[in-house]
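quick one, 132 residues, struct below
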Amino acid sequence: MKQYEVFFYKVTEAQREEINTKGWDSPIGAAYLDITASRQLPAFKAVTEFDLYEHATTITVDDIEHVYTLLQNHKKPWTASYPCHTDFPRSFSVGDVIWHKDTDSFYWCAPMGFMEIHNYELIGYLKGKVHA
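---
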């Protein structure tokens, strides 16, 4: 079994309002689209500036594909089985990030599969989000 830390992207109410009033071309809108609507590994522009990720849970499973499957809310909420560190425990989705702690590798959930992240600023930011 392998341990994974899971990070969900999120926007605050104020950020959502800025997107609604200024559009997707606004800095927050562009940063959000960069991580959620890309078909290739995002640049993760402004993720740290806008604080777009939160630590959602820690999960121990056989492989990374199981993380995606087990963190869906279709039969029962995943919070019934795993610790929840977020106020909005939605299903795992494209744009979210997984940290494979055993190998110290980070993966972005792409539209099809996962892509390894080598952006060290983002990695440091995400590691700082994990609850002790």
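DSSP finds five helices and five strands in the chain.
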